[in-house]
Amino acid sequence: MSTIVATLGTDRSRRLRAALTVLLAAALAVGAPFYFAPFQVFQLTMVLLYAVALAGLNLLVGFGGQISLGHGAFFAAGAYTAAVMLDRYDIGHLATLPVAAAGCFLLGLGFGVPALRLRGLYLALVTLAFAVFLPPLLKRLEPVTGGSMGLTVDKLQPPAWSGLAEDQWMYFVVLAVTAVALLLARNLLRSRVGRALLAVRDNESAAEVMGVRLALHKTLAFAWSAMFAGVAGCLYTWVIGFVSPDSFSFVLSITLLAGLVVGGLASLYGPLLGAAFVMYVPSVSQDVSEAAPGVVFGLLIIAVMFVAPTGLAGLPGRVRAAVADRLPRTTAGLDRTPETESAPDTEPESRAASEPSATVTPADPAVVDAEPVGAPPRTEKE
Question: Read out DSSP for 326-350?
Fold first, then answer.
């Protein structure tokens, strides 16, 4: 009974700490745009929308066990969907979000078919090919996409009743969408679909024996991942107000994958940390070396992977384990209770009292030489 009570107390305290952490994070997120400068608010907005894209990639790579180097293509598809609707059809900004999400979901379903036959490096090459040929295709479709010149659209303007600046209003809109997307990803992973994805990632044969439909869940993993990327691309169009094929090269796909790995695969907080890495590290690299920022960026990735092989999300656990290993181990003497230390050690005396006496007395020659009762008479030789 005491064990059950202790377990319930531990769960209650863990939930309380999680709730306090969420409230603190929400307070910091809400107060950030009123404290930072407009450009810094813009950077935080970009971190949030990158987190949405990485959350979808995490579903596919971290929890689904598949690899994709073409996530930037789904990002571009969502961005151009929103841009074309705003530029050609003069539709409201909010109406473009569900259309971009649904369109990229269907695109992910269609692209998930190769995932049924390919895996590993072969699947990575196919997804990379999709990211490579999409920018030239967008340039060819000039009547719709604007070609190499791209499309310029109006940014999302704050309503008069809000009293907020444009960057602050855009930040809060993206923050709300990001919160909904991360909550959806969390609930999806805790559902039957999420458990099936984990089973497929760990062992496909065992998952199939247990009744998991491999083809369905592999395709759905691509579809969900593409949908999140499309939502992030739509937010990108709202924030930037301009799209062009050169903004969505295959380097974007590789950068997103690197950000997810640095942030932490199969972690709910990994996409946020990876998004911050994707946003801020290139700027830091540019400040450190204007001649070769890519070299600094690569060295920083290597350093992070050396310090935290499981990503930044797993770094606190590694630090706690390292500190626990370095602490002096508790000796046996410290584990003894005060009653045990103060009480005299009477065990040898009690043992001696309970066991038969083994004291040896000096031997008497008369007794030793005596014959036992009933023994045969001795002869002269004896």
Answer: HSPPPPHHHHS-HHHHHS---HHHH
